[in-house]
Recover the amino acids of this structure.
DNA sequence: TATTGGATCGCC
DNA sequence: GCGATCCAATAG
């Protein structure tokens, strides 16, 4: 199967969040290979999206910004470009992994038009290959609940903070995305994003996509 | 330097 | 519904 290239990710974040449904994520680690089909995503649409980690930050490249401190690279309005979120301005197809609730990770792929920022959050995958390894990592047997959640799928695929900044389009990367069958539009549902109560009216935007 | 709370999960 | 568990993002 064909690997998705960076052009795939260099589009409007909402478009990518829909287009990536039905594609395959594969991780290749010393303990084995695991693959899942993407069946649920959310779009986090850059500096104008109150739910996005770069909300309110300047949408210029952080490379040209003057550092305020070692951690804070740029400040304007409410948001900042930080060591964690700066990847959302980076090369489309890069991996954005962050830790949450002290014990889990979440996976995003950087996706935006040139000069913008944004990421596609992977909320659920269907286990396809390497299911025994996924079961072992998750310490459960029930296939349905192996990877049906953003942090569950990270555990199942062996994704941790070491994946931060990896280029999913590069053959050298331990993670890649593969083309799948074409998905007809009528097979995609949209809904509000989950757990973003802090995001004001953006809480209701239908930026979650389900295959 | 100190405080706070989260793009979650699993159990109750 | 609720606790686990910790680090990045803020405020001071």
């Amino acid at each position: 199967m064909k690997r998705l290239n960076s052009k795939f990710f260099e589009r409007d974040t909402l478009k990518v969040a829909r287009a990536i449904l039905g594609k395959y994520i594969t991780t290749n680690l010393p303990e084995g290979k695991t693959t899942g089909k993407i069946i649920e995503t959310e779009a986090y649409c850059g500096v104008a999206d109150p739910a996005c980690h770069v909300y309110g930050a300047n949408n210029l490249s952080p490379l040209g910004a003057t550092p305020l401190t070692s951690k804070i690279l740029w400040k304007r309005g409410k948001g900042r470009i930080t060591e964690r979120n700066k990847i959302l301005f980076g090369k489309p197809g890069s991996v954005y992994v962050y830790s949450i609730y002290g014990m889990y990770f979440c996976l995003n792929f950087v996706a935006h038009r040139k000069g913008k920022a944004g990421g596609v959050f992977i909320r659920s995958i269907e286990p396809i290959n390497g299911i025994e390894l996924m079961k072992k990592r998750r310490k459960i047997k029930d296939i349905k609940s192996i990877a049906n959640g953003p942090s569950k799928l990270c555990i199942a695929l062996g994704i941790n903070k070491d994946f931060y900044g990896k280029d999913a389009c590069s053959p050298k990367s331990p993670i890649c995305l593969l083309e799948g069958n074409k998905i007809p539009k009528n097979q995609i549902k949209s809904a509000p994003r989950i757990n973003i109560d802090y995001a004001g009216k953006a809480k209701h935007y239908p930026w979650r996509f389900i295959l």
User: Anything to note?
Assistant: Residues 59-77 of chain A have pLDDT under 50 and may be disordered. Helices of chain A lie at 6-9, 13-19, 131-138, 150-157.
